[in-house]
Sequence to fold (144 residues):
Amino acid sequence: MSLERTLSIIKPDGVARDRIGSVYDRFERAGLRIVAARMLELSRAQAESFYAVHQKRPFFQSLVAYMTSGPVMVQVLEGEEAVQKNRDLMGATDPAKAAPGTLRRDWGESIERNLVHGSDSPANALCEIAFFFGEIDVFSRTPR
Ligand code: CMP
Fold:
C-alpha cells in the first residue's frame, strides 16, 4: 500500500446541483482526506490546457464549453492508493455504464456531464495537482 495524492474536480453540473457535500462525504467515508480545495471558474485557456490530451477528440470543444460554464470545485485527496480509490468511487466515464453506488452512476447526467474528474495515474496526479495548487496550498494531514 502506498500513500498517494490525486486531483479531483467536481464539475459545473455537480456544483450547480449542490452535490459538493455529498461527494466529499463519499471521499471521507472511503478514507480519502481533503488536503487542499478551491472553487474557481476555469478560463477557456485553462480548460483547453487541462484537457489538451483530448484536443483531437470530437467532443473537445463541447467539453471545454461545459467545463467553463460555471464554477468547479477542485480538491487534492490523500490516502492509501488514492488514485485508484478515487477512480473506484467515481465509476466509469459514462454514468450509464458506471457500477451502482458510484458517484457518476448516482449523480452523473451524461458521458460529458459526468459530475467528477479524477487523475488516472499517480504521474498524472502530480501534474494535475501542480496545475491548480502550489506546494504551500497542500496540507499534510496523514502521519508518515
Ligand atoms: P473526465 O474524466 O474529466 O476526462 C475527459 C472528459 O471528457 C470526461 O471526463 C468527460 O467529461 C468527457 N468525455 C469523455 N468521453 C466523451 C464522449 N464520448 N463524449 C462526450 N464527452 C466525453
In short: Residues 54, 59, 63, 93, 111-112, 114, 117 surround adenosine-3',5'-cyclic-monophosphate (CB under 6 Å). The mean pLDDT is 97.
